[in-house]
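Researcher: Predict the fold of Enzyme.
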Amino acid sequence: MSQKILIVGAGFAGVWGALGAARVLDAAGVTSSDVEVTLISPKPELQIRPRMYESEPQKMAAPLLPLLDAIGVKFLEGSVDEISVKDKTLSVVSANGQKRSLAYDRLLLTSGSKLNRPPIPGLADHAFSVDRIEDAVALDNHFAELAKLPESPARNTVAVVGCGFTGIEVATELPKRLRESFGANAAVRVVVIGTQDAIGPDLGPNPRPFVAEAFQSLGVETVLGSGVVSVDADGVRTASGTRIEAKTVIWAGGMRASSLAAQVSSHVDPLGRAEVAPDLRVPEAPDVFVAGDVARALADDDGHYALMSCQHAIVMGQFGGHNVAADLIGVPTLEYRQPFYATCVDLGEWGAIYSEGWDRQIKLTHAEGKARKQMINTKWIYPPAPNRAEALAAGNPQASFG
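Model: Structure tokens for Enzyme follow.
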């Protein structure tokens, strides 16, 4: 009977985890009859979440079955709702609600993250998001319906709640998208609301002036220093009493790790990420490895921890896949390290800013930055072609990203 490696989640870490695991087994001459690798996810596709702020979000998915077939990895359609590290089993729920239990010899948890939606009155009923394809498509359909209504300030106004990476990219893309929906001469208004006193609080001082320049150029307004306390069909109200009339509210209030992380580790950080050893193993569950948005992993020797980003998820996935397979067949695991870090923020028609290093030294701006962003969004973060040699090479954790 073959040994089982289960990979939970087909996000960036899960897909590159499958490539990394297949690469190790291939190099060792281990066949699927000896070790079976299965990727579990609700759909056999990789949603390109960093692109959900763009138009036509329904196109932002990469099919996975041809790639998985090429590397000899099985796919199981379903959602994991329970993991027992004691019994080394997990429960998978199919689309029709049927449950089945699967045993594993090694587990790679890459179940990702989801948008944090606090219990703000009206938020669940009236706010849109760009977290998943389904969410972004719903927003697109909403704009199409609004275009049928008579023009009014509220119809033409969008309130974006959240002034981090997602909020910035959504807000700066919206003026163009709204004109496409409402007409080239429509008087559109985009307002970004944040509890912090500055836009992009996590960006640091170097990119911030360029973001401010882009906001001014595109006419994007800000209401800062006060959080949203209620949302309704006609707008939002902040804690300071400010009322913004808007037929569209987009929530971009930060991410939280999948709750499955807390099922494999009793040590999770405030974002819900499991604490891991240098090789991405869960110390209290040595047959479980964690990668991507569910892992709190040290990325370098300077004390920087990986962020919830595709940049870190891809490389962590490579290491996690390598290690989960290597550990099973008795090959030494590798210590996850990702010293190179870059940031590229799309700023709509203004362009983009590309920086390198944790201190975010600006390297490219405007059109040059936009070209780099488009390269990242359309090339570098997509899975390799379903060619076995190319796919296995993409699973190498010691190859550089980008």
